[in-house]
Amino acid sequence: MGAVSDTIPDRDRTTADAGVALDDITVDFGGVTALEDVSLSVDEGEFFTLVGPSGCGKTTTLRAIAGFEEPAAGEVHIDGRRVTDLAPERRDVGVVFQHYALFPHMTVRENVAYGLRFRDPPGNVTDDERVDELLSLVDMAGMGEREPEQLSGGQQQRIALARALAPGPDVLLLDEPLSALDARLRERLRVTIREIQQELGITTIYVTHDQSEALAISDRVAVVSGGRIEQVAPPETVYREPRSRFVAEFVGENNLLDGEVTESAPPRTTVDGTPITLPESATVDTGDPVALCVRPEVLSLGESEMVSNATTLTATVEHREFLGDAYRVHCSWNDRSLLVKTDSREPPEGTVTLTVAASDIHLLSDSGR
Amino acid sequence: MVAAGRERVNARRWSERLAVPTAFVLTVAILALVFYYPVLSVLREAVVRAGSLTAAPLVDVLGDPFYTGVAHYLFTAPLSIPAGVLDWIRAGFPSVEFGLFGFTAFQAFLSTLASVVVGLPGAYLLARFEFRGRRTLRSLTILPFVLPSIMVAVGFLAMFGQNGLLNDVLGALGLGQVNLLFTLEIIVLAHAFYNAPLVTRLVTTAWEGVDARRVETARALGAGPFRAFRDIVVPQLLPALLTAALLTFVFTFLSFPIVLALGGLRLATVEVWLYARVQDLELAEAATLGTIETVLSLALTYLYLRYEARQTTASGGTTLPRRALAVGWKTLRDPVRIGLAVYGVGILVLFVGPLVSMVVESVTGPNGLTSAYYEFLLDQQATTAAGTTKPLPAIANSLAFGVGTLALAVPMGIVVSVMATRGGTGSRLAETLMSAPLAVSGVVVGLGLLQTLVFGTTVAGYRFTAGGALAIVVAHAVAAYPFVTRNVTPALAGIDSQLVDSARSLGASRFRTLLDVELPLVWTAVLAGGAFAFAISIGEFDTTVLLAEGVESYTMPVALERYIGNRSLGPSLGPATAMGTVLLLVTAASFLVIERLGGRWEP
Amino acid sequence: MDRRQFLRRSSAGVAGLAMLAGCTGAGEGDNGSGANGSSNGTETTGTGADSTATTGSASSGGTLRVATYSSFTGEDTAGNWLKSAFEEENSGTTVEFLTPENGVNQYVQRAKQGAPIDADLYVGLNTAELVRARKKLDKPLFQSIGGSLDGADGLKKPLRIDPKKRAVPYDTGYISLVYNENEVEEPKTFDSLLESRYEGDLITENAQQSDPGRAFLLWSIIAKGEENYLDYWEQLVGNGVKVLSDWEPAYQAYSDGEAPMVVSYSTDQVYYHGPDVDMAKHQLGFLNDQGYANPETMALFESANNPQLARTFMEFVLTEEAQSKIAVKNVQFPAVKDVTPSEEFDKYAKEPPETVTHSYDELAGSVESWVEEWSRLVASG
Known about the structure:
The complex is a heterotrimer of chains A (about 375), B (about 600) and C (about 375). By secondary structure, chain A is of the alpha+beta class. Chain A has 2 domains: about 20-250, 3-Layer(aba) Sandwich (Rossmann fold), CATH 3.40.50; about 255-365, CATH 2.40.50.140. Chain A contains 8 helices and 20 strands. Chain A has a 6-stranded mixed beta sheet with strand order 6-7-8-3-9-10, sandwiched between helices. Chain A has a 5-stranded antiparallel beta sheet with strand order 13-12-11-14-20. In chain A, helix 3 (about 125-135) packs across helix 4 (about 155-165). Chain A starts with 17 loop residues before the first strand and ends in a 6-residue tail after the last strand. Mean pLDDT of chain A is about 85; it is low at about 1-15. Helix content of chain B is about 70%, strand content about 5%. Chain B is globular. Chain C is α/β, with parallel strands linked by helices and about 375 residues long. Chain C folds into 2 domains: about 30-175 and about 295-350, D-Maltodextrin-Binding Protein, domain 2 (3-Layer(aba) Sandwich), CATH 3.40.190; about 175-290 and about 365-380, D-Maltodextrin-Binding Protein, domain 2 (3-Layer(aba) Sandwich), CATH 3.40.190. In chain C, helix 4 (about 80-90) links the parallel strand 1 and strand 2. Chains in contact: A-B, B-C. Chains B and C meet through helix 9, helix 14, helix 15, helix 21 and strand 8 of B and helix 1, helix 4, helix 5, strand 6 and helix 9 of C.
């Protein structure tokens, strides 16, 4: 538990008008560093997602913001207030956990009203009105007298959300809130969460290991790995311009090809002896090692004259999956495996020609492995 | 942005934040004052002679074959041991004596085994079967705990004696005679009488906390009922079972009145010896024995706590459903239910037998049925003679002290549990020290209280002494709160930390989270610990008589003890058994009330 | 409730609340600790006029604090009778009983630690306790007084156990066997108890903490000699003697038929006689035609607050009336010669043909090692 001090929140230190700001946060667990020098700035009203594989430190980051972990170094600010030394109950954050964490000995209404024991509801409403307001917001009006165990998982999570929002927190923290639910419900509920967030305009930090979920609902995404932040950017940027090999591999599917620059203008490389045209914008020198990211959907089947500056590869179809709206094709090229996604109505088979436009190739800034 | 106006509890914040640490400091202070200071004042005699440290008394005792048997060579002639072992092997492994300590540990081991064997099926019955009177039965399992040993001795004598009820029944069935009195067996049985209910209670509570979904998961994964029990249920019962076994071992290791009353001097334990040394005012030797006992039992406690800390108990979820005990004619064909029926007969013999025998003794005079002993109680109540011990004040005092102890020991125990579950380095050691009241000889504690609080000390020309009702309650609470802690700690540790985190992020302080979320969730364990605390207070004798100021603050066990010495009806234990019956009824009623009232708040 | 008692209670309450409150000046330690100091103050106001009326001793008014064992007081006890009779005879005086659970040890330990001793007189002391009290302390706990007491001349010779005349006997029991003649023949001697026909038949008490148990052990030392008593006991243990904690459980076990012989008192039949009683179960066995006297004595604390009144009380205890009352109520024999407690008592309380006991000098220096060696023998048996 965090150490508790009673210093008045320091407003002098400006961390812009960030909803949440972390400055060089380090968290140790008995000698093991869980977070190292993490800095983040989340805008007010922003939906910000921390995504990464399990054990990467994303939940620890969230817990450091909530006050459940005591950072060994660094500062936490919420709404411009320094809260680093504040106990969780004084930070004005709402938290929703993966397993809902509803109080089993209280009714739904008592759960939602719990935070109102300590804070007045925002706006000029009574506690009861506030609870009803929140229950309607999460589409659970009239369920107040139920016991938590009588509810389905999705309902429990809505109540957990309502409970977290009832006192009108400055920040909403969601820790894998949908992971325990089935796929369809997960997608429905994430829309609900996004809508509510936008309606309330509340600064929200969302933790998930599911990159598609992260891309789907966030204003910005931070990809976390090994206790460090790899990239912070809007979902599109993270997807199209991953900054590191890790981001490229973790977010979405990708074909990563290592090569060496053979020409700098126009930029060209060879991978396993095959020349590949690089985007013109790439500034590279001859002899540089480069790492190419080629998304499966930018590899098109067949030769296309429409595309200038394209590279053509000849590959063999090994295996394919029908996805309904597309085929996912595992190809073999130069003893490498290439993943291709095509919306062709004909099932590809045998030897195929793959075309990729130079502008669809992304070069990783850190080409090293 | 935090608007100060929106905070409802700013004013309470300070006090709430300080509540747990303050309560902890108070608990430690109480413990230091009425436990550590008195106990250490006694035990220091073991290592301090004429103002300087010495190991002589310890070496004297450990090197005395009477106390340690062959182990005395370890302290007198360690170099001769290899040769001695060789001789022993050559002689063909003749039986080896380990002296008074060896015998004490041996009987404690047997008693623990017996308590577990007797107690476990009871837990199974109470946790897994539904039948009429189950809750009542559960409440009453604590009764043996409060009975003064002299009453248990009377009951056992009347039940298992040569002319006892058991032999009458066996004779009528043509099954011959058993002669158990003054044997190791009867001591072990009497220890089981006291401690098997402890096993039953602790394990039942743990069993009721097993999440049915986990068992169902295991079953779904292909585990048969037995495998599911072994892999899922047993690991969750083990901590409770080991707690009970450890407590039983420590209690029976330190046992003395029951050993003396039923076994006699020939089966003496260390504590019997310690008591005799105190009576002879050979305090250094008594302190030495007490120190060795304490070191042994604290070491056990420490090892256990380290084990317990590594166990995780899950709580919450759905409790395993109870099956109906009686299922019509099928009851007679189900081996489990037949086994339970046989067990029930055993329980009748071991528990109901002695208790009923004691009640029967209270209405049986030399010439048959009599109400003389109860009339004696009424006469005592009616008399105006000074120094008379009256039953009603004894009942009132017992209940008042019991309620007071409950009110003090429960918060103390909870506070220690909270600190224990927070963990941190050295917390096992700290917890061991906080559990020490369980593990220190009652005789030593009594002597210490006498020498320190009762005799008092002179500070700045004034003599400070402690005594009276509050001192009694505090001393009872110190003896009782470890039971609360041992019940509550595993339960608290099993609470999903996300529940606590949720409450805190919603604005609840650590203290409010404890009150609003954690305690309601572990209420069963709190209640179980509270019942123990009440029982400890009701049954307590030594400290009560020491700290009583004037002759008025006697309790039921004290009254009972005084009636033993009362000769107005001749040398008869009748009045004492009548008082014992009153004690039994009053405490039985109290436990039903405690559990029923307490159960109301159970979530 | 009288005022004194009220004061004591209320201040005890205060002492309890403050846990370590309840204090008096350390200098007046003899007044007793805590709230008890105030009771003396309130008491003496009422006694000024009366004290002149009391004959003899100058300052017999006031409160006499008597420490004793708990069953000495209460309804229909010797203590209670003594209190009312003495208070009646010496108007203005009050007798208060203190009953510390650990008996005289309480005062030995208090003296050792320099804690105040809150009593004037101790009633119910036996010889071995007197030995212990002297041995454990540098200064005597009790005053030498017996020689100058009225009535001390009449004490029975064998009961005058203390040559220094601190302990004044007021009654005595004689330890003997009680046996059931339906089951066993009378054992006549210590040696006969070793015979196989008595195997497993005898119950005695633990000499470490039981008066009759210790008396029986000491008696066996007289019978067998200091050198041989352990051998004797080894054989007795071999013959299945049962050593129980105290007299009550021992006698209870005897009554329940666990064994046909028990070490008890020669006053047994005072309790058990009459048409309904099977007297065969209450036969007395005076081994070697002896009985071991275990006199109960009283002694005046060195630090007594009211020694004059205490002396008056002790003399009162030795009067013929008190002697017979004590004997009847305590079911013990009078300590003073030629007192007949009652016809019934005379009929059923049996004195042994020969009385044996140890004097203070004989026990001093020996009793502890005798008991310890004996108990080690039994416990390792």
